Amino acid sequence: MRTATCPKCSKTMEEGFIVDHSHGIDTQSEWIEGPPQRSFWTGLKIRGKVRRPVITLCCPGCGFLESYGLLEEG
Ligand SMILES: [Zn+2]
């Protein structure tokens, strides 16, 4: 569990994640290395690229969001 203090209002931020509701399923947003490249078949080319699940901290005081790409452990 990551903890952080809001840089805007100094309250303790809460950990969560941004959900993607597309295609009728709920998935966690991911960070993909490099600039987005369009793909006719899948929308964007992400095969073979580094992907990191994204967690986002949210401030309960002002709503400020701060995101982190999770690094692989070990
Ligand atoms: Zn705040």
Detailed description of the structure:
By secondary structure, this protein is mainly beta. It has strands at residues 14-16, 19-20, 27-28, 30-32, 38-39, 43-44, 51-58, 65-69. β7 and β8 (65-69) form a beta hairpin. The chain is built from no helices and 8 strands. 4% of the residues are buried. The mean pLDDT is 92. Strands 1, 4, 7 and 8 form a 4-stranded antiparallel beta sheet that branches. The chain has a two-stranded antiparallel ribbon with strand order 2-3. A two-stranded antiparallel ribbon has the order 5-6. The protein has one domain. Zinc ion is lined by residues 6, 8-9, 11, 59, 61-62, 64.
Q: What is the compact description of this entry?
A:
With 74 residues, the protein is mainly beta. It has strands at residues 14-16, 19-20, 27-28, 30-32, 38-39, 43-44, 51-58, 65-69.
Could you give the topology of this structure?
Elements: E1 14-16, E2 19-20, E3 27-28, E4 30-32, E5 38-39, E6 43-44, E7 51-58, E8 65-69
Antiparallel strand pairs: 1-7, 2-3, 4-7, 5-6, 7-8
The chain binds zinc ion.
The general outline is elongated
Return the average pLDDT rounded to an integer: 92
Which parts are unreliable, with pLDDT below 50 for 5 consecutive residues or more? none
Number of individual domains:
1
Small-molecule binders here are: zinc ion
Helix share of residues? under 10%
Beta content comes to 35-45%
- Number-wise, the strands total 8
Total of DSSP H or I helical runs spanning 4+ residues: 0
Which class of secondary structure composition applies to the elements?
mainly beta
Rg: 15 Å
List SSEs in N-to-C order: EEEEEEEE
Biggest β-sheet: count, sense, barrel?
A: 4 strands, antiparallel
Give the N-terminus to C-terminus distance in angstroms.
Answer: 17 Å
